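User: Could you go from structure to sequence for me? I need the amino acid at each position, not a summary. Structure tokens:
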């Protein structure tokens, strides 16, 4: 509030005896009793803030809280010793969020503040602290040999690759040609075996089977001889309305189709499903990224034909899952450890002797 004060001033001039009429001066000063602004009021709804941090990996973590009726949105705030910043906003009634792109072996402090339906913010100070897992010491000396009657599943196809822009890459090696369709990787749609995207080798061809978003199943083949007893990196880059396959760092095939949505049937390595169309050969360094890698990034990943520490990639913060097949202490005939995320592989018919001392 402002108060108007009127000051009357009387001026007398000494040269001639005369009186000058008083002049009125107006000044505006602040009130001693300002009115409280309703916009400064906190929310009347009691919100306890962030309650739980779970599924902490090297590059991600899941945070959760309890939604309360009357709240409109939740601001996710990263707090440091010198600053704080809103890093995401979640609309009610959602009550959890997966934080991605975190730095390994790093401490984070997170505060969740609620905005109610009247536009007021709550005042909870519940900062929750957690530390991401450290990178494993890089060691690449082993790979996994498949004999044609095995596979590894990695949870639902829709969970292993979640972004519309994403990439999956692995190394394969075989020393002879086979006269049947052998699948390298298969993403399924729906709850049963049905290829959304499957890559395989058939004689001297790379065979790509997929279902587009209109439900049409198609197969494309292109000549490439994998039977040369040399390690080859196969990288699939997925984007809306297009996916591309790179071999040894170079674009090999592009298909201008939008893939059908991935489903709950597990992602399969080295078979179509079960032991159907099982792969014969060696596999190593299976990696998933939540971006569509650019051509120069694919070349960086290929590293002139030598697999190396994916932590050293310039885009390592986009790595979501990484499997090394024998180079992690937890790898064995019944488990393949996820170096980055939390989706471990479940082998079928593997023996410990299938882990070979050989790597790209």
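Assistant: Here is the amino acid at each position, in order:
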């Amino acid at each position: 509030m402002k108060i108007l004060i009127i000051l009357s001033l009387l001026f007398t001039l000494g040269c001639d005896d005369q009186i000058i009429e008083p002049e009125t001066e107006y000044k505006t000063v602040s009130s001693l009793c300002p009115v409280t602004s309703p916009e400064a009021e906190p929310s009347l709804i009691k919100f306890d803030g962030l309650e739980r941090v779970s599924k902490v990996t090297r590059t991600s973590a899941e945070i959760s809280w309890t939604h309360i009726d009357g709240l409109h949105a939740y601001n996710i705030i990263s707090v440091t010793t010198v600053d704080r910043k809103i890093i995401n906003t979640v609309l009610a009634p959602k009550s959890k969020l997966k934080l991605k792109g975190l730095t390994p072996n790093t401490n984070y402090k997170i505060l969740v503040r609620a905005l109610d339906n009247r536009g007021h913010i709550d005042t909870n100070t519940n900062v929750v602290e957690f530390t991401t897992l450290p990178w494993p010491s890089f060691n690449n000396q082993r790979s996994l040999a498949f004999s044609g009657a095995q596979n590894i599943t990695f949870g639902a196809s829709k969970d292993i690759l979640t972004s519309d822009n994403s990439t999956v890459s692995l190394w394969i090696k075989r020393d002879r040609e086979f006269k049947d369709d052998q699948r390298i990787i298969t993403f399924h749609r729906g709850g049963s075996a049905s290829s959304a995207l499957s890559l395989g080798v058939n004689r001297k061809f790379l065979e790509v089977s997929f279902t587009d978003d209109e439900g049409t199943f198609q197969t494309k083949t292109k000549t490439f001889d994998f039977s040369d007893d040399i390690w080859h990196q196969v990288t699939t880059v997925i984007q809306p309305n297009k996916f591309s396959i790179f071999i040894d760092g170079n674009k090999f095939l592009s298909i201008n189709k939008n893939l059908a949505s991935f489903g709950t049937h597990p992602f399969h390595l080295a078979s179509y499903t079960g032991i159907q169309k099982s792969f014969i050969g060696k596999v190593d360094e299976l990696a998933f990224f939540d971006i569509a890698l650019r051509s120069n990034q694919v070349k960086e990943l290929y590293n002139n034909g030598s697999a190396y520490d994916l932590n050293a990639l310039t885009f390592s913060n986009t790595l979501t899952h990484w499997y090394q097949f024998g180079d992690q202490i937890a790898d064995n005939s019944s488990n393949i450890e996820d170096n980055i995320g939390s989706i471990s592989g479940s082998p079928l018919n593997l023996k410990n002797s299938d882990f070979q001392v050989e790597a790209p």
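One structural detail worth keeping in mind: Residues 45-131 form a domain with the Immunoglobulin-like fold (CATH 2.60.40.10).
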